[in-house]
Amino acid sequence: MESLNLTLKIWRQKNTNDKGNFVTYKVNNISTHASFLEMLDILNEDLIHKGQDPVAFAHDCREGICGSCGCMINGRAHGPESGTATCQLHMRKFKEGETITIEPWRAKAFPVLKDLVVDRGAFDRILQKGGYISVNTGAAQDANQILVGKIVADEAFTGAECIGCGACVAACPNASAMLFVGAKVSQLALLPQGAPERASRVENMVMQMDDEGFGNCTNIGACSAECPKEIGQHHIARLNREYHIAKLTSAEEGAVG
Amino acid sequence: MLDSKIPKGDIKDKWANHCFDVKLVNPANKRKFDIIVVGTGLAGAAAAASLAELGYNVKAFCFHDSARRAHSVAAQGGVNAAKNYKNEADSVRRLFYDTIKGGDFRAREANVHRLAEVSVNIIDQAVAQGVPFAREYGGLLDNRSFGGAQVSRTFYARGQTGQQLLYGAVSALNRQVGLGKVKLYTRHDMLDVVMIDGQARGIVTRDMVSGEITSHSGHAVVLATGGYGNVFYLSTNAKASNATAIWRAHKKGAFFGNPCFTQIHPTCIPASGDYQSKLTLMSESLRNDGRVWVPLKADDKRSPETIPENERDYFLERKYPAFGNLVPRDIAARNIKEVCDEGRGVGPNKQASYLDFAESIKRLGEDTVRARYGNLFEMYEKITGENPYKTPMRIYPAVHYTMGGLWVDYNLMTTIPGLYATGEANFSDHGANRLGASALMQGLADGYFVVPVTIGNYLATLGFNKIDENHPAFKEAVDKVKENTKLLIGINGKQTPDEIHRKLGKIMWDNVGMARNKEGLEKAIAEIKKLKEEFWSDVKVMGTNEEVNEQLEKANRVADFIELGQLMAEDALARNESCGGHFRTEYQTEEGEAQRDDENFMYVSAWEYKGDGAPETLHKEALEFEYVKPSQRSYK
Hints:
The structure holds two protein chains of two kinds.
Chain A: E1 3-12, E2 21-31, H1 36-49, E3 72-73, E4 76-77, E5 99-103, E6 112-114, E7 117-118, H2 121-127, H3 150-160, H4 167-171, H5 178-190, H6 198-211, H7 222-226, H8 234-249, H9 253-256
Parallel strand pairs in A: 1-5
Antiparallel strand pairs in A: 1-2, 3-4, 3-5, 6-7
Helix pairs in contact in A: 2-6, 3-5, 5-6, 5-8, 6-8
Chain B: H1 14-21, H2 27-30, E1 34-38, H3 42-54, E2 57-61, E3 79-80, H4 92-102, H5 109-129, E4 154-155, H6 161-178, E5 182-185, E6 188-196, E7 199-207, E8 213-217, E9 220-223, H7 244-251, E10 256-257, E11 262-268, E12 291-295, E13 312-313, H8 315-319, H9 329-344, E14 353-356, H10 358-364, H11 366-384, E15 393-402, E16 405-406, E17 419-421, H12 439-459, H13 472-491, H14 497-511, H15 518-538, H16 550-574, H17 598-601, E18 603-608, E19 617-622
Parallel strand pairs in B: 1-2, 1-9, 2-5, 9-17
Antiparallel strand pairs in B: 3-4, 6-7, 7-8, 10-16, 10-18, 11-15, 12-13, 12-14, 14-15, 18-19
């Protein structure tokens, strides 16, 4: 089993109001089979034994699906491997003696809470404005009464896959959340169940997105390139289209569906 | 004797009768009640949303930064429902039967039948919410098979079914948050239940950003906080999945049901080193097309591709021809352990079996296999650095799910009036072994369809009086949590919470894992008692309460895992039989299968807390099987 000796430059910030700074650490004999977060676990255990404050980082499932984890690793959201959340990144992707720079997501709408942990509450506030279909429990018809062609269902799934990690925002020079919003708008706009609220949904979600301080999309494409679920930029195109249609029709939504 | 409050009548009518018999709260009166829901996984999000839709005021809590991150999100394979869309003679009765048998006759019939009944509504509800299940070209829903069933009744969304169902439930929750009917508290750790006059009246939480410890009042409390597999340190659970909410409720008087019933999932990626922080599941659905084998000879060092067919042992197909690779999880796990114990395991430390797709790739083509399991294969490659399209996966069993949990009656109420437990947090539906794709079904059944009905029955008897947060019970509970926090930080010993947690995990895995016996369990109990002392004298919690402090969070959880671990061992020791995932080596058939003792152990064990260090009292709920006759489970 191979192992690595590494230098880590990690962003340390006590709380939201602290200015923060980089601190350099060394870690030795890290197995190439260890995950990136296991490497940070090893660092933290070592720091605690030295009586130093461990590095705070967000994580939970460590299977790339909960969307908790995420940091900038050598300037890239979730690190060097494409289609991979930080927790699924393994140390075999790094070289002996390498210096790794680790920073939190940087965006006005994601304030740092501590070290590498940021507040992504803005995403939920956007979803609370319309990222749903209004159906109460018990009011559903038989599932096979709603026909959805496989191609449409699969395309809706590609938007629904978003894990809400925030890498798209962190990767974007404009700190735009349009890939995140586009993925949800797209999923629900494609499905027949989402049709009745199609126009008001996109209008309300975009309004909240702007209020949260996210920037606009200027077609750079970093969001899709860094997305651990490889969600395509065409969802942003669909978001734009939905928004424009909504602006023309939403006042009549109740009447025409 | 415990009263499970099972309604009278034929099993087919019990739930319908009960829905008619429960007391109702008038729609205009529902807004006078506050309900606390802890946890926002499938069971919690579904309950919080559904209760708010009915008109109750809901306060929902989760320790994540977002409701969407609850560990239900990681469920891969699917959700069962008795839709019979495949014309395979499936029915509510058959799903009921399979679940009772799969649970090795240690689940409550009435609950399981209700689960099978509402399973069909779950699929309808999810589709209406926009959950993108897999579909066929004609636009209809697709199904696949799962273990322990001979029909294809599992609905799925690639290998991300839990994620999609959770996002559906959370979208319903988000809608109610937007409408102001749910107040959502994220990054809040529940640390105690507040009791007044024997009833649950609120909870104590710690704000995980500011450290503020405070109380919240409600007319009823629903715990949907998941299972306790992390007692073993290494499991497929998320790192922060914990038992603190249910354990502290247990210490306030809620009985704990069947704590020793743990599910060890047969197909997980083996551990690679001491730094291992968790284990990753490879979905049971893979056993639809993957074949489990080890070399016939022990110590065979050849690479798998070079071992000829006649020198391989497809041991599940050999021993269980009727179900083949799709035998239930407990049986598959035990057989994998057995071949490894014989020295026929593969991989660097010989603790693994192959899960081989070569034949399926030949039969179906790589593209079809990719379409079915692509994301799982990718995950496997990221973790191991090996390509499973070219070389067989290596898999080994790992702790995955806990069938045990807080004891609840038919209404899902614990032995504390006003305190409910739903989803994996309760013990109710899976007996001694859960079938694949049934956890999602149960979480959503409890949350969408059961608790919203049964909670009204309790509230209707309560009266509208607001709960007074100035009552001394609230202050007392808050002070106690503050005191405990100070105590933990003040120990300032030498071992980190993780180091002690790993020690606990090793004791549990070695003695309370896949094979248990009297001697090992007694040893485990003694070791855990010692570890508890070690924890309270030598744990080192860095930092303060008034900041983001993961070490403090962990210390709280490990303290509870240690106590719960001991109860699991006590329960396993008291159950002198084998059933489902509980395998006592002293009790097996000639063929090495679990040997139940229905005469003496056909009951749910429900443990009552009796104070720190005191032995717990065992209560029993006798199980009656009127509709499925208990038999030796056979999958041959």
